[in-house]
Design a protein that fits this description.
Radius of gyration: 19 Å
Helix content: under 10%
Distance between the termini: 10 Å
Structural class: mainly beta
Strand content: over 45%
Largest sheet: 5 strands, antiparallel
């Protein structure tokens, strides 16, 4: 779950808002679902991943990853002493974090898709000798990044 709309791509509004019940039994609403492109960090490596089916919850103050959601998609989470690890479907550690009370704090970096490239759909390709539309030429391969702070 995440409150940052600009991190999402393939954004889909939910047919009706979904209640998200918090630890104090209050409820806030998820209004849409999407994917977020990220880099997970472990042992000095940065691994590109896509978080799927992420709920957009505008009133959320911290980003949340659910262990059950990872398990549903074939990943595992291990909790050992004061640390935690996320393993992919091949049992490889893709992210590590530290336990803080009952929460696992992990470091993830987002990739802002909207700033990486603009895509246009053309009715027809420009004829030979004609200049392509300006919108077709816009791209930036510098990899715009935004800090996700801490997911927990």
């Amino acid at each position: 779950m995440c409150a940052h709309h600009d991190w999402f791509h393939h954004y889909s509004t939910l047919a009706s808002p979904m209640d998200v019940v918090l630890g104090d039994d209050s409820a806030i609403q998820a209004t849409s679902v999407s994917h977020i492109s990220i880099h997970m960090h472990t042992k000095g490596k940065s691994l590109p991943m896509v978080l799927q089916d992420v709920l957009h919850v505008l009133e959320l103050h911290s980003n949340l990853l659910l262990v059950s959601h990872f398990a549903k998609h074939g990943s595992e989470m291990w909790f050992v002493r004061e640390g935690c690890s996320i393993l992919n479907q091949h049992k490889q550690v893709v992210c590590e974090g530290d336990l803080c009370g009952s929460l696992c704090m992990i470091c993830i970096t987002t990739l802002s898709i909207s700033k990486l490239a603009h895509i246009t759909v053309l009715d027809s390709f420009p004829a030979k000798g004609k200049d392509p539309l300006e919108a077709v030429l816009i791209a930036d391969n510098s990899g715009s990044k935004a800090s996700i702070n801490i997911w927990h």
